[in-house]
Amino acid sequence: MNDRHVALISTFYDALGQTDFATMERCYHSEVSFGDPIFQEVEGRDRVMRMWRLQLGVRNGLKSEYRDVTADDFSGTAHWTARYTFSSTGREVVNEIGALFRFEDDLIVRHHDEFDFRRWSKMALGRPHGLLFGWTPMWRKSIRDRATRPLDDLGPS
């Protein structure tokens, strides 16, 4: 167990829960990459932080809780729960997320969140869209395109 890396992950999630972007950014390596089922791959600290700012801007009243943080010298894991109102539909979402981390220079250089896309789409989008289409590749692409468009519209940092 690497206590510094456990503390780093905890600091990140504490900052996320307080929408403290400056502290979140200090946890990330300049070459960080982030991935999840929606954004897939976002490269570089500036773009990753832009993604978090966009995400937290459309998630009304985000409340997050984390648990089960583990880390060694190279990698770490955590589980976290995101509770928010999805702004596009006004629907309540409770998303259970597994996070994987890699470290370099005692900072997070890789952050990957994994969650059940179909379950998320049912909560966020409701019926019939989320229930009927949440599992289809075309629907996933549509959701991904809508989510990443604002990030891409801002251009390079």
Any key phrases for this structure?
single chain, 157 residues, alpha+beta, Nuclear Transport Factor 2, Chain: A, six-stranded mixed beta sheet, globular
Q: How widely separated are the two ends?
A: 36 Å
Provide the number of structural domains.
1
CATH fold group: Nuclear Transport Factor 2, Chain: A
Count of helix runs: 6
Topology readout:
Elements: H1 3-17, H2 21-27, E1 28-35, E2 42-43, H3 45-58, E3 59-71, E4 75-86, E5 91-104, E6 107-114, H4 117-125, H5 129-133, H6 137-153
Parallel strand pairs: 1-6
Antiparallel strand pairs: 1-2, 3-4, 4-5, 5-6
Would you write up a description of this structure?
This protein is α+β, with helices and mostly antiparallel strands and 157 residues long. The protein has one domain: Nuclear Transport Factor 2, Chain: A, CATH 3.10.450.50. It has helices at 3-17, 21-27, 45-58, 117-125, 129-133, 137-153; strands at residues 28-35, 42-43, 59-71, 75-86, 91-104, 107-114. A 6-stranded mixed sheet has the order 2-1-6-5-4-3. The longest helix has 17 residues, at 137-153. The relative contact order is 0.17. The mean pLDDT is 87.
